[in-house]
Design a protein that fits this description.
Blueprint lengths: L4 E8 L17 H12 L3 E5 H7 L14 E5 L18 E5 L5 H9 L3 E4 L8 H10 L4 E4 L3 H9 L5 E6 L27 E9 L2 E8 L2
Parallel strand pairs: 1-6, 1-7, 2-3, 2-6, 3-4, 4-5
Antiparallel strand pairs: 7-9, 8-9
Bound molecules: NADP nicotinamide-adenine-dinucleotide phosphate.
NADP nicotinamide-adenine-dinucleotide phosphate binds next to strand 1, strand 2, helix 2 and helix 5.
């Protein structure tokens, strides 16, 4: 396969939201965070979309268990990652995947801040097929995609994943503008939808973790 093994991990409410309409995404319990951090420690790279960086400012490090920090990747076609982002701290490498649309001054600022830049296509969006091939060529064999909903759509709809781990937290928050597990344009018919196979179910009090495998 011309790409790494890709695991998508996300926590959602019972009504499928991965954040409230105001962007609060604290859904996982402490126990679930330990699971996620063990997953982080088992991969070579963690990938998120630029909106997740802008809204959550995550450091994407391994904190709730022992383990090595994977490299961090931001999918950010226009190089909007703020140089003050926690993801650009110096102790773990960060790669910003941009397109040729990214302004050169932004790219230079990110390089000065210590980021590595990967060019992936000329379009409005980062070409994920190209990005995953570049990562594979760099020796990255396992990638954890940690959202948000738009990145999840691109990865899932293009069939670029192998595993999907979804925590369902015991919350219902509603909100038509609250981001769901998978955003994007969506499919018209159910038979166009991406099918997965249920591999495992874990329960932790009122929280459930569903682990699916992609069908090839
Ligand atoms: N509960 C959870 O597990 C969890 C996890 C992560 C995030 N979240 C929440 O999710 C929300 C953010 O999700 P989001 O859907 O708005 O944003 P996102 O998926 O984090 O980022 C989407 C952005 O990435 C850029 N992008 C570049 N190439 C792309 C491609 N090929 N496909 C898709 N996007 C591409 C686009 O911005 P440009 O055009 O500027 O490049 C796009 O708007 C936040 O509220 C965050 O808290 C929750």
């Amino acid at each position: 396969m011309d790409r790494p093994y890709v695991i998508i991990n996300s926590a959602m409410t019972i009504d499928g939201k991965i954040a409230t309409k105001k962007g609060d995404s604290k859904i996982s319990s402490k126990e679930d965070l330990v699971r996620v951090h063990k997953l982080r420690a088992s991969v070579d790279a963690i990938m998120v979309g630029i909106n997740t960086v802008l809204i959550d400012d995550p450091s994407l490090k391994v904190k709730y268990c022992q383990g090595k920090n994977p490299i961090r990747i931001v999918v950010d076609s226009k190089a909007r990652t703020p140089i003050t982002s926690r993801i650009l701290d110096k102790d773990t490498p960060t790669f910003i995947a941009v397109t040729e649309k990214a302004p050169i001054d932004r790219i230079n600022k990110l390089k000065e801040a210590g980021a590595n830049i990967i060019f992936c296509g000329k379009g409005e969006e980062v070409d994920l097929v190209m990005l995953f091939k570049i990562l594979k060529d760099m020796g990255i064999n396992k990638v954890l995609v940690e959202g948000g909903g738009n990145i999840n759509w691109s990865v899932i709809s293009q069939g670029l994943f192998d595993e999907l781990q979804v925590t369902i937290g015991p919350f219902i928050v509603g909100g038509k503008d609250a981001i769901t597990l998978v955003e994007g344009d969506g499919f018209e018919r159910m038979d166009e939808g991406i099918r997965v196979r249920l591999h495992k179910v874990e329960q932790n009090n009122d929280e459930v973790v569903l682990i699916y495998k992609a069908i090839r």
